[in-house]
Design goal:
alpha/beta, about 40% helix, five-stranded parallel β-sheet
Length: about 375
């Protein structure tokens, strides 16, 4: 089919967390490879990243205002700090989104959205096809354990489930696909294609083919400094190598000076999935994006235990129950205990291999609207 005959695709992607954006990259790249015209509406702080990553192949817009929720150290919603953002969205951002949406509706695009239920409503009003994409750990919103936080969680979940009924299809990524009666169509995890060989990555890092290489990720809300100091002691005891991928130039220069036991790339890189595929084990919080890249590479996963985070806790539980992880690392573990868990994870030969064909499965579902 010629490009001029293909329906354009508009992605509306929630922010401000980068993981919300990287979750959609495999599908965006696949649509671009199939010569579809893709527009991405993303949080302002991610525009430069996405433009650089896609190299101008897609049109990238910053949406005017989004909800930036604030959380406490125990991952409860910080209501007072979040109210200002919510009010700004209700009285300004919502209507700016609608104006931006109306301006481009003449293209009759297929709308793909994740955590933006009002976009589902806009699509319904204008008679546009719309598909929602979630992962299994986010089906229910969780903002804390107090009675008030539970009420907010239940209200948000009800709102999202109502918006699911407005879309043509609600696609749910699952590590172990199970039937989802009613609202959801299950697919296996979506993962980016490996574009660099293991040999080239290891050559860049000066790691020989028989040396154990462990990918270590301690970013986000997982107290990175504390974890880095602990793993620095582990690295001094271990015969293999630990690889860290910094998020910016500051981290790259600081970590090189502070943590000489770790390997770091020569420059900042966006192709983290290629580095993961060159390793023997991944140690990270159980964020869904990192987990699916690990599963796609056929590697064992060793989670950093974050007891209060609902999404990460749910993913961790699924990994342990299905023998995709054999242990977790807690903040109370000593370097020797962590080293023993690393060895145990590397020796786990009975873990199942998970199909990560979610991109192909999703494209097949989308084909009737494209």
């Amino acid at each position: 089919m010629d490009n001029c005959q293909k329906r354009p695709v508009h992605f509306w992607i929630f922010g401000p967390e980068l993981g919300c954006l990287t979750r959609e990259l495999p599908l965006i790249e696949a649509l671009l490879e199939c010569a579809y015209t893709v527009r991405c509406f993303v949080h302002a702080k991610h525009v430069t990243f996405l433009q650089n990553y896609l190299g101008g192949r897609a049109i990238v817009h910053a949406y005017p205002s989004g909800i930036e929720l604030k959380y406490t150290a125990s991952f409860d919603l910080d209501v007072l700090r979040s109210v200002k953002s919510v009010l700004a969205f209700v009285f300004w951002g919502f209507w700016q989104h609608y104006r931006l949406f109306r301006r481009d509706r003449f293209e009759k695009p297929l709308i793909i959205s994740d955590f933006l239920p009002h976009i589902h409503l806009f699509a319904k009003i204008h008679g546009l096809h719309c598909v929602g994409i979630y992962n299994y750990a986010l089906k229910n919103r969780h903002f804390g354990n107090s009675p008030f936080h539970k009420l907010v969680s239940q209200s948000a979940t009800a709102l999202f489930r109502l918006s699911y009924r407005l879309v043509d299809e609600m696609i749910l990524e699952q590590i172990i696909p199970q039937s989802q009666p009613g609202l959801f169509t299950a697919v296996t995890p979506m993962a980016r294609k490996i574009s660099r060989s293991q040999e080239s990555i290891r050559s860049e890092l000066h790691v020989n083919p028989h040396e154990k290489l462990i990918f270590l990720s301690v970013g986000g809300n997982s107290n990175p400094k504390s974890w880095l100091e602990r793993f620095s002691h582990v690295a001094a005891l271990y015969s293999g190598k630990f690889l860290l991928i910094p998020r910016n130039i500051y981290e790259l220069s600081t970590w090189k000076r502070t943590y000489p036991h770790f390997l770091l790339p020569s420059e900042i890189s966006d192709d983290v999935h290629n580095y993961i595929a060159a390793c023997d084990l991944v140690i990270s919080k159980a964020g869904f994006g990192t987990v699916r890249e690990t599963l796609a590479a056929g590697l064992p996963f060793l989670p950093l235990h974050l007891p209060h985070h609902p999404e990460i806790g749910e993913t961790e539980r699924v990994l342990l129950e299905n023998n995709l992880a054999v242990a977790t690392i807690s903040e109370a573990d000593s370097p020797v205990e962590i080293l023993n868990k690393i060895k145990k994870s590397l020796e786990n030969q009975e873990r199942p291999l998970i199909s990560c064909q979610g991109v192909e499965e999703t494209l097949k579902i989308l084909s009737c609207w494209l």
